[in-house]
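The passage that follows is intended for readers who have already worked through the single-chain material. We present the inputs for a multi-component assembly, then the predicted structure in tokenized form, and finally a short commentary. You are encouraged to pause after the input and sketch how you expect the pieces to fit together before reading on.
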Amino acid sequence: MTTLSANEIVGRLKLHGLRVTPQRFAVYENLLNRIDHPTVEQLLVELNQAGPVSSQATIYNSLQALREVGLVRQVLLEEGVVRYDANVDPHHHFRCHSCGHIEDIPWEAFHEVVQSSLRPGLRPDRYEVTVMGTCDRCQPPEPQDAV
Amino acid sequence: MTTLSANEIVGRLKLHGLRVTPQRFAVYENLLNRIDHPTVEQLLVELNQAGPVSSQATIYNSLQALREVGLVRQVLLEEGVVRYDANVDPHHHFRCHSCGHIEDIPWEAFHEVVQSSLRPGLRPDRYEVTVMGTCDRCQPPEPQDAV
DNA sequence: TTGTATTTTAGAACTATTCTGACTTAAGAG
DNA sequence: CTCTTAAGTCAGAATAGTTCTAAAATACAA
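Having made your guess, compare it with the prediction:
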């Protein structure tokens, strides 16, 4: 989670053949500087909080462009909710089914999961574990008490 | 994947406090008798192929009722596509990114995945692995040939 | 600078899902 | 069986998330 400078962000965009517009930059920068996985709605509100930066349509366009070059990806964990993530390295997700909190699980947490346990004929090239459970804030004070 | 008799299906519905209507029965029966995970659209078409059985609204209603009592669950693997699955036992999914084919991976395929590799504070109670790759039909004849 | 292909944008259009409200029905009680 | 009624069905309206349109603005190579 090293913070990138503006120049580095611009460099990345150009490296992938994208023109650097203020809107596109803002969307990507915002995604890079957060650990959660915001929805379009959240991006729209936050980017335009201190004055207008980007329209909704442009956020959709920017995300699509960023996605096409592989700088951003979607995260699908809840019904009808599409989230975006600038961490395109393989990693897993944890979702608290009490408060909805979502966080990354490092790739190394689960090792050797998909060795060769698949049926013959299937050729895997990527996998991802989604863990559902309860996060810190949603846990009862004394876990050993039966309720 | 043992096929259930009509009586067994009715029994299950009643057991979960659901009235047995022709539409609800048809939706659940259809889901039970297939291994893929259809969308509402697919259900609508197939159920009404040999004469009208259920309206779209009722399919949504039925799926919601079935979901509320835990007989059916959603499968979210692609953007904007919600699929339904009558296999509510924990299992994993494989998705071919070439043809979109989706199939179940038995629960036992990956064991001990989420032992205690999570950071302290997170309490897992369920997890699921999604494997992306290429299925039989989408593989080149001679895999060792570089293309 | 300038020229041009790309991008932005408001609003229209589209699509998946839920809601509404009148009609119908499953199934327990008598 | 028949009655009763809470629950279910359904067409069409409403809503929400996303994409499209086409006109104005702009990044950036020359």
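Commentary: Chain A touches chain B through 34 residues (CB under 8 Å). The beta strands of chain A are 73-78, 81-85, 92-96, 102-105, 123-134. How closely did your sketch match?
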